[in-house]
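Figure 2 data, in text form.
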Amino acid sequence: MKTVYYLIRKSIVGKEENGTFWLFQNGAWVIDRKMVIMDCLFGYDPSEGPDSPYAMGNTDIMEEIEKISEEDAVHAVSEQKKRRKRK
């Protein structure tokens, strides 16, 4: 199984496994039902109308996501868990 990890907006950890996208939220991996990862990958701009030719391919939005290593993802998840315990 191949897993690709992402960091979204410098704070959200995501991953893709076998075509399914996940976000690390509230201490657990949850399916990305709001399509946060796909929207960033394709540059979807929700402020544009559905018929707008500018709704997809917005490079500013595409820059909000970056691929990261598994090691970086584990570290980011660990940091989120630590912050969650302190609350």
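Caption note: The chain has a mean pLDDT of 93.
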